[in-house]
UniProtKB/TrEMBL annotation:
Record's protein name: Protein disulfide-isomerase
Role of this protein: Participates in the folding of proteins containing disulfide bonds, may be involved in glycosylation, prolyl hydroxylation and triglyceride transfer.
This protein's GO CC annotations: endoplasmic reticulum lumen
Signal peptide: 1-24
Disulfide bonds: C65-C68, C410-C413
Domain of life per record: Eukaryota
CDD domains referenced in this protein's UniProt entry, alphabetically: PDI_a_family, PDI_a_PDI_a'_C, PDI_b'_family, PDI_b_family
Organism whose genome encodes this protein: Ficus carica (Common fig)
Chief place of localization: endoplasmic reticulum
């Protein structure tokens, strides 16, 4: 499943993980390196090696990617530790930046770096690695992943090892460890093992919470929020999956600097609902009242296709940039719908939360579109596009438009700028080709047709309206070659060409 987690949240996460990365590199430099435990694979030997492994972990990386560099020493140390696990667990890497490996990478749906996959059964099944990125965390996560998907709970100690704070843990209670329900539960745990911890037991008295006299079959979900424990008895596999997915989302997801909350924030963004986000200063005046009223509204509306998150101002700088919001607007409620529309209620009062959400539900609130002002002058070779001129310059112009989505702080965008300039200069005399750029942090862009997950992202719209994403090298020659290959002739050209024919 493609992740819909917005860039502004990733920036927060990655910032935190970059600190860990730094510490790791310092200690790494003190050790002397000898043998490499991480296997290097490429297109020539990938299938050969993978087909011989019941369980193998593959990192797709790019040499220029900073997060990959930070991960490398941690990953290598984990590989060395796991090489003496019984049975040994193999970690491998593929340079997905190499042309020869690109097909392999696309086969595994690699869209960003690093992407780590866990392959089972000689590569017949693959799942995303959703675990930590430092040595100890990687080792623990992979040990668990390589064992059975669901752990048997035989003692109270087993139970307390599995059912820990801040995690979703699913436990099946069965009168005996066989039969149809047990098998369905096992299949569920295999399917969802990368996202949740699973256990099973024949003795509900060992479990820390919930009715202890039950004998099952039933599924009990432990969670660190709301009702803390909830039981379920329908063993249809789809129903089970839906139960786990739904119950593992808090009524109100909390977004702050506490990293243990982040997995729930990721879940929040990956669901299909409209998303309500209340931003406020958690330690400011009136925060309690707001949060409590917000919780009430969430209980009322969450069954109607809206998920609720509350974000602390302190952790939400990225979100404010992303939405183009200002701190003097808090407490601020934003609702974002699946089609990318946003609805805004700045300087909200606790007593108005529920009524505003209701108005939104009834279609009485106007959507908000973030746009920079339309530039008065647009005379540079690379044209400036803002949200309010996107339609005119890109969609309705009848021209071939190469459009760059950039962020002001992005280094790769800065490197690309002079190259785009040169491309634009070389097309200056060609009225049918426009080279343009749009600051994607300051303007809302329709998610259809543009999928902007990183910066820079380049799209090409042909004169006839075809949209192509540009994934070639970012050199002047390659960009021009791409434009020449894909551009449409406009009516003007055709006239000129038929004119030529007649000569
Ligand atoms: C796979 O092939 C590459 C390129 O020939 C080589 O560098 C690498 O060591 C090989 N990997 C294994 C595990 O044999
Ligand atoms: C939040 O409120 C507290 C208490 O009034 C204040 O000290 C702090 O600076 C505020 N934080 C932000 C980010 O405005």
């Amino acid at each position: 499943m493609a992740s819909r987690v917005p860039i502004w949240f990733l920036v927060v996460c990655l910032f935190a993980s970059s600190l860990i990365g730094l510490r790791a590199e310092e200690s790494e430099s003190k050790e002397s390196e000898t043998k490499e435990f991480v296997l290097t694979l490429d297109h020539s030997n990938f299938s050969d090696i993978v087909s011989k492994q019941d369980f193998i972990v593959v990192e797709f990386y790019a040499p220029w990617c900073g997060h990959c560099k930070k991960l490398a020493p941690e990953y290598e140390k984990a590989a060395s530790i796991l090489s003496s696990h019984d049975p040994p667990i193999v970690l491998a890497k593929v340079d997905a930046n190499e042309d020869v490996n690109r097909e392999l990478a696309s086969q595994f749906d690699v869209k960003g770096f690093p992407t780590i996959k866990i392959l089972r059964n000689g590569g017949k099944s693959s799942q995303d690695y959703n675990g930590p990125r430092e040595t100890e965390g990687i080792v623990e996560y992979l040990k668990k992943q390589s064992g059975p998907a669901s752990v048997e709970i035989k003692t109270a100690e087993d139970a307390s090892n599995l059912i820990v704070d801040n995690k979703i843990v699913v436990v099946g209670v069965f009168p005996k460890l066989s039969g149809e329900e047990y098998e369905k539960y096992t299949a569920l745990s295999e399917k969802l093992r990368s996202d949740y911890d699973f256990g099973h037991t024949t003795d509900a008295k060992l479990l820390p919470r919930g009715e202890s006299s039950v004998t099952g079959p039933l599924v009990r979900l432990f969670k660190p929020f709301d009702e803390l424990v909830v039981d379920f008895k329908d063993f249809d596999i789809d129903a089970l999956e839906k139960f786990v997915e739904e119950k593992s989302v808090p009524i109100v997801t909390v977004f702050d600097n506490d990293r243990s909350n982040h997995p729930f924030v990721i879940k929040f963004f990956n669901n299909q609902n409209a998303k309500a986000m209340l931003f406020l200063n958690f330690s400011g005046e009136g925060a309690e009242a707001l949060r409590s009223k917000y919780h009430e509204a969430a209980e009322k509306f969450r069954a109607e296709g809206i998920s609720f998150l509350v974000g602390d101002l302190d952790a939400s700088q990225g979100a404010f940039q992303y939405f183009g919001l200002k701190e003097d607007q808090v407490p601020l409620l934003v609702i974002q719908t699946t089609d990318g529309q946003k609805y805004l209620k700045p300087n909200l009062e606790a007593d108005h939360i529920e009524s505003w959400v209701k108005e939104f539900k009834e279609g009485k609130v106007q959507p908000y579109k973030k746009s920079e002002p339309i530039p008065e002058q647009n005379n540079e070779p690379v044209k400036v596009v803002v949200a309010d001129t996107l339609q005119e310059i890109v969609f309705d112009s009848g021209k071939n438009v190469l459009l760059e989505f950039y962020a002001p702080w992005c280094g790769h965008c800065k490197n690309l700028a002079p190259i785009l300039d040169e491309v634009a200069v070389s097309y200056e005399k060609d009225p049918d080709v426009v080279i343009a750029k749009l600051d994607a942090t300051a303007n809302d862009i329709p998610s259809d047709p543009f999928e902007v997950k990183g910066y820079p992202t380049l799209y090409f719209k042909t004169a006839s309206g075809k949209i192509l994403s540009y994934d070639e090298d970012r050199t002047k020659e390659d960009i021009i070659a791409f434009i020449e290959k894909n551009r449409d002739k406009t009516d003007e050209d055709e006239k000129q060409e038929s004119g030529k024919d007649e000569l």
